[in-house]
């Protein structure tokens, strides 16, 4: 029995951006000479990304450093453990793209992806088109100034398309007239305009910010993200209509497109869910690569196999995926996803984050004195981030001018007491840890994603500006964090933590900002954040060091040939300090408690450290990473 597909709302136009070789591009922007050289960015022993010159020479993401050196001996390797520069670039690009939206619906996914809901911009432009002369259209970027915009040919899609055979000018063959505006033509026209806007934004981003990107255009987040991947890098792809098929007619382009994806490649269907679905479709446990706790699948189960399976539908999926803590409507949600339906909205840009979360992972953390030290590091990072992200300068003639350079120094030491005010107060401070499981009888250790946590009221002294960050952080440790820690781990020993997280949450806007202040201050706030981040960059370290890794990193830097460009060398500093932030890329959604658009039943799993080398990375990267440990030296 075939169950009908859920209805999709194709009234929106969503553009998804993925910056090309992002971390490498950040370094290239700092030193353009690097563009023509093979460049790779290292975290621990892994190349987390490399530029296209390096990829041309056979290097790839998540490759072991020693492999990369073997394959391309003149590769330039830079350290990318300090995330400050990536975070700054990401925020800057985000603000740039945000300035083109009217609705403010623009959402970051990690550091290098952005969704934009441009429905209102597109609809406005559709209303102004001259249908008798689509070829010489003008795309308006400003409702109040008709001169701002760019010329475009609205009779065709810009760039690549899915399906491929209807590329660019050929789509012009589908006529648009002012008398026959059915759903297909209406959607096609709006997507065409979306493709021209996307091209304009890609071009501007490259010209003004120096980043090339890969872009997808469709009607929801899921489809725009997936279709962007079709043509990489420095390209864009539009998913063409028809998006639905008439009863008994040919399959829609959405179905044709999504059906060919592996079930595990669908954002929103995480590793565990995909595993359960695979097992069901195959009628047996799906095989994995041997030798790993969680290896990559060896099976080829596509969306089509799942979607067309007899009896498949929301109920069956709901039963398959049921478990403790799993939302009741998960079956419907997943059924929607495999039919190209994604109802999640692009989140509006927020003046302040919903929460600020700082964490670090550890290879071994099993003593109270050590834990206290680490809590101090994390508390310092947290207080700094709170000051950066949650304060704005006061616009008062007596007190304030905008923050000047030297004021920023003072803010750090706490003497510029009257220049800042809080835009929001986090009311709750949460401490979470992830204890390691005991060793298995065979000496191996299973990974666990489970965290335990305790919360308390955020102490009010945190909001004072008279004391410096260090003083506040120390006080926070003594008066708040250590008591919380002892509640979580009452025993003096016997535990070993792989992760500690501090989170300032339960955000309450400050009264004066609740009305219009937050919106008014946002631009200044972002500028200040970036400036202040620059000041603190050497402390913004993300990976817990170990002696072994330290040696490795030194080799990485010293191993460069004399005369080669060496960037990021100052980040060897990173090796001697800890205190991490944003180990994982957060979406704006993940900043709001645990409703990540792309999360699955692993919602607590915000980042993992490799059980072998301790490298920290998003869980999706762990599978690939672990394979490298299986490679012979
Ligand atoms: P990606 O978008 O996966 O990679 P990319 O932008 O470098 O390359 P592409 O052109 O294929 O999009 O990830 C964005 C950044 O995130 C990447 O530059 C480095 C970082 N990253 C990690 O830190 N760990 C990881 O495991 C991966 C995959 C990426
Ligand atoms: Mg990218």
Automatic annotation (TrEMBL):
GO biological process, alphabetically ordered: DNA repair; error-free translesion synthesis
SUPFAM superfamilies the record matches: DNA/RNA polymerases
Species the sequence originates in: Cladonia borealis
PANTHER family: DNA POLYMERASE IOTA
Molecular function GO terms recorded: damaged DNA binding; DNA-directed DNA polymerase activity
Residue ranges occupied by any UmuC domain in the UniProt entry: 14-270
Pfam families in alphabetical order: IMS
Name of this chain's protein: UmuC domain-containing protein
InterPro entries: DNA/RNA_pol_sf (IPR043502), DNA_pol_Y-fam_lit_finger_sf (IPR036775), Rev_trsase/Diguanyl_cyclase (IPR043128), UmuC (IPR001126)
Superkingdom: Eukaryota
